[in-house]
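Lab notebook page, bench 4
Experiment: in silico fold of construct C2
Operator: M.H.
Input chain length: 224 residues
Purpose: comparison with the prior construct
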Amino acid sequence: MQLAALRPHYLLNVNPAEVILANDRDDQCTPSWVLPALLEKSFVVVRRTAMTGNRIPVGVRGQERSQRWAAWCPPNSIQGIVTPADLLQRCETTKDSPASGACRGLRSLAVYWQWLSHCWGPGGSVGFELATGKRSTTPWSDLDIVVYADEHLSRNDARRLLVCTTDLEVAVDIRVETPVCGFSLAEYARSSGKPILLRTPAGPILGDDPWNADLRSMPAPTEA
């Protein structure tokens, strides 16, 4: 498996026994909810941090919105990989009625965005629910969307995507992932060429070109 193929927001089905929960710190630092959550739903989400040959940065999700924990897992612990695009297809083909406003919003976007050539799909609680088959959304859950724009996405197209979310019954947060960074679609659409916040593996920066290959050369953060 090529680690470079793993992108932020991908979900990994892992062997819980091999996940490094304490992130190289004392095990006592790990909150009490982390291990039970991982044992119940053995999925973790890929984080935006530099990878090494034997460690993949991942996050563990708890039931509450505040329950998020950074961890690491070795490549040989991965038993399956699920992308947001996989989850979109799963949502479109399921016969079950949507369980929340966020799920209904996702199905609406699947119709409105048929013209979009970039891969995309749900992240956050909706994505986790579709991956695990266990309820993660609530009636108040937002809809998190990830768009993988490996090629340039114009601001006009970004505005077209945003317009489709205005009449949905749920708040929508759209993140765009390029080969070098991630950013907010709403900020990009409204920026008129001005610098926006770009999230890179080396940390957040301000920039006006999210596809600038020079961002790859930024030094990775050192671990404490």
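Observations: The first strand starts at residue 11 and ends at 14. The two ends are 28 Å apart (CA to CA).
Next step: discuss at group meeting.
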